[in-house]
């Protein structure tokens, strides 16, 4: 693998970390770049390699947000643990059964999410408590199990689904939802990383330079999101959902 290839992939990884730190969805940039640039490698190896930079980027985003945004500490820890286990289970399940049915299902959900967010102008703009502490606990832990499994089994759009869940089910605004989503996503990425490491499906010479690039992008993306606030994140969220819809639709129709 020559240096120009590493540099190109690190550039995509930087952009993925930047976008992912703001609203999630960095995998929509990083994973296709890997698949198109290195078609000679097995797909599981390429997917596994992307997990290390994704994990580092998620951790950096989580760190930046946690310094400036209050976190629901008593519930987020168990949610991360549940998401970790669910993500590992999802990765294992992927090795047993096909996941081809997930793309049309995810596409349908994303279209509904896009229309709802676009038409409801105040969605995620102001934090408001809509549930009791017990309901918050139940919903966060259930969300950790469901989206954690999804991330291990399929993956694309995980960050966006987490943000959506924290806004719609818990009552957070975009900024607070992004902060909590990064923590949970870091946990699911760690589980996937450990799974692929145990399977020996990592290109370490590429994974670590990409991790540095992703981490740098995540640092800048999180700082920008915190500086600009909810309106900026909402625009990013809509743009990312639209891009995800186009990508899934293209894959299904071609």
UniProtKB/TrEMBL annotation:
<feature type="transmembrane region" description="Helical">
    <location>
        <begin position="202"/>
        <end position="220"/>
    </location>
</feature>
<dbReference type="InterPro" id="IPR052017">
    <property type="entry name" value="TSUP"/>
</dbReference>
<comment type="similarity">
    <text>Belongs to the 4-toluene sulfonate uptake permease (TSUP) (TC 2.A.102) family.</text>
</comment>
<dbReference type="GO" id="GO:0005886">
    <property type="term" value="C:plasma membrane"/>
</dbReference>
<keyword id="KW-0472">Membrane</keyword>
<dbReference type="InterPro" id="IPR002781">
    <property type="entry name" value="TM_pro_TauE-like"/>
</dbReference>
<keyword id="KW-0812">Transmembrane</keyword>
<feature type="transmembrane region" description="Helical">
    <location>
        <begin position="45"/>
        <end position="63"/>
    </location>
</feature>
<keyword id="KW-0813">Transport</keyword>
<keyword id="KW-1003">Cell membrane</keyword>
<feature type="transmembrane region" description="Helical">
    <location>
        <begin position="140"/>
        <end position="170"/>
    </location>
</feature>
<feature type="transmembrane region" description="Helical">
    <location>
        <begin position="75"/>
        <end position="95"/>
    </location>
</feature>
<protein>
    <recommendedName>
        <fullName>Probable membrane transporter protein</fullName>
    </recommendedName>
</protein>
<feature type="transmembrane region" description="Helical">
    <location>
        <begin position="101"/>
        <end position="119"/>
    </location>
</feature>
<dbReference type="Pfam" id="PF01925">
    <property type="entry name" value="TauE"/>
</dbReference>
<keyword id="KW-1133">Transmembrane helix</keyword>
<feature type="transmembrane region" description="Helical">
    <location>
        <begin position="232"/>
        <end position="250"/>
    </location>
</feature>
